[in-house]
């Protein structure tokens, strides 16, 4: 989880990723952020995030992202 938070903080240093549950819905993360985030997550956690997983509910919170990564076989 620490690696995930570090990646998110590198994208938006001032966002409260630990407590926010609507990162996409509130446009804290926009489409370009999501593209950059997916690349970082795939590289860091050695997973492939297919287009079928690119939905707001998978990126609205740190918990949702962690759940997705675990589902894809990442070792958090």
List the helices and strands and how they pair.
Layout lengths: L1 H10 L19 H15 L16 H10 L5
How would you describe the overall organization of this protein?
With 76 residues, the chain is mostly helical. It has a domain at 2-54. The chain is 46% helix and 0% strand. It has 3 helices and no strands. The longest helix has 15 residues, at 31-45.
Give a short synopsis of this structure.
The protein has helices spanning 2-11, 31-45, 62-71. With 76 residues, the protein is mainly alpha-helical. The termini are close together.
How far apart the termini lie comes to: 6 Å
What is the average of the pLDDT values? 95
Helix vs. strand class? mainly alpha
Measured by DSSP, the beta-strand proportion falls in under 5%
User: What's the total number of strands?
Assistant: 0
Task: Describe the largest sheet.
Answer: none
